[in-house]
Write a structure and sequence with these properties.
This protein is of the alpha+beta class and 392 residues long. It has three domains: 87 residues, Elongation Factor Tu (Ef-tu), domain 3 (Beta Barrel), CATH 2.40.30; 148 residues, Threonyl-tRNA Synthetase, Chain A, domain 2, CATH 3.30.980; 116 residues, Diaminopimelate Epimerase, Chain A, domain 1 (Roll). 35% of the residues lie in helices and 30% in strands. The chain is built from nine helices and 20 strands. α7 links the parallel β16 and β17. The longest helix is centred in the C-terminal third of the chain and has 33 residues.
């Protein structure tokens, strides 16, 4: 059994220990120490990282797992059995996790007390913290939960760790997602939460810092919340603040007015789209009118249009209207001979699929569809494409 220093002092960042074993594991090594402050992966939280120092060696601790009470350190180097090493945690990473894990306890305790929902899932990774609850929450309820959680931080409540005996345990209320064998470790935040948990936590709620719910989505009939606390909440705020500043500058609007500015921009964009739609319709009609003389001379002539720009709806409209005027091949090609063309082709008699296949083979194209209309892309110049289709 490894002596688990992280339970004795969650703020311990350096320690000494003896190397009990070191065995190869692929291109890494699995090291067992007599004692450790490295917390292994567990309780929804990823493992601590850091280094083991032996003489001039600085061996990286890449992952930590626990098996049958023994803590296994995955390292990138070999250590001599019997050597005394100095362990150094990446304590900044550890402290961020303790802030966020303790913040999760506060939120989950409030959700359980106010709504009776259970925390049925928890993940604390390097980039994201998520909590899953088995019931829905409204936007207003989430604001209230967040406010109460930050009030708990302001109260700076000492966090209590209990390891009750089997006789004491039935008399203690605590949340747990599973049946626990052996010694139960309970993390209590008086007035807010009591939960079985194996992970290290900060010593007082004040050390959690600001608690911010950053996302909420419906998930498996309940709710999945995203959370940031303390320094991660500060980092998240700075990133979003930088984004708002950039948007503000680009829209020439005050930061507090960017939503209104974006709405105005959306209205302008919608108006431009409507104008573009009308212009595209006029383009289609004008293009078909130009082809009327050709149809007088040959009622089954191909009607083909080449354009630099046209939206997909207008392309399909052209082909649909052209098929009403001729039994020939109807098509529109948008692009350039340098960049290639997007195309839509149609033909009344249903032979357009075989024509499209031949066209793609001849001009490095791809695409398909169902009669009477297909679409795709190809490369070539307009004259060659026209000439090819005149032979079909």
């Amino acid at each position: 059994m490894t002596e688990k220093l992280y339970y004795q002092d969650s703020y311990l960042s350096e320690f000494e220990a003896e190397v009990l074993s070191c065995v190869p594991k692929g291109n890494k090594y699995e090291v067992v120490l007599s004692r450790t402050a490295f917390f292994p992966e567990g309780g929804g939280q990823t493992a601590d990282t850091g280094v083991l120092v032996s003489g001039q060696q600085r061996i990286q601790v890449l992952d930590v797992q626990e098996k049958d009470g023994v803590v296994l350190h995955e390292t990138d180097g070999l250590l001599e059995v019997g050597a005394v090493v100095q362990g150094e945690l990446n304590f900044q990473e550890r402290f961020l996790k303790m802030q966020e894990h303790t913040g999760e306890h506060i939120i989950s305790g409030i959700v359980h007390r106010r709504f009776g929902y259970q925390n049925v899932g928890f993940h604390l990774g390097k980039e994201e913290v998520t909590m899953d609850y088995d019931g829905p929450l409204t936007e207003e309820e989430l604001r209230q939960i967040e406010y109460e959680a930050n009030r708990a931080v302001a109260e700076n409540i000492p966090i209590v760790i209990l390891e009750p005996s089997k006789e004491e345990l039935p008399h203690i209320f605590y949340r747990s997602k599973m049946e626990i064998e052996g010694q139960v470790r309970i993390v209590q935040i008086p007035g807010y939460d009591s939960c079985a948990c194996c992970a290290p936590h900060v010593k007082t709620t004040g050390s959690v810092g600001m608690i911010k719910i950053t996302g909420a989505i419906r998930y498996k009939g309940g709710m999945r919340l995203s959370l940031h606390c303390g320094f991660r909440a500060l980092s998240d705020y700075r990133e979003k603040e930088a984004s708002v500043k950039q948007i503000s500058n680009r829209l020439s609007a005050k930061q507090e007015e960017v939503v209104c500015a974006v709405k105005r921009l959306e209205e302008e964009l919608a108006a431009l789209k409507e104008k573009n739609k009308r212009l595209q319709e006029q383009l289609v009609k004008a293009a078909l009118k130009e082809e009327e003389q050709k149809l007088l001379e040959n009622p089954v002539a191909n009607l083909l249009l080449f354009a630099e720009e046209m939206d997909p709806a207008a392309m399909r409209n052209f082909v649909n209207e052209a098929m009403e005027k001729t039994d020939g091949i109807c098509g529109v090609f948008v692009g350039s001979k340098e960049q290639g063309f997007r195309y839509v082709l149609g033909k009344k008699d249903g032979s357009i699929c075989s024509i499209g296949k031949c066209l793609n083979e001849a001009f490095e194209g791809k695409g398909g569809g169902k009669p009477p209309m297909i679409q795709g892309s190809l490369k070539g110049n307009p004259e060659a494409i026209r000439g090819f289709l005149e032979k079909e």
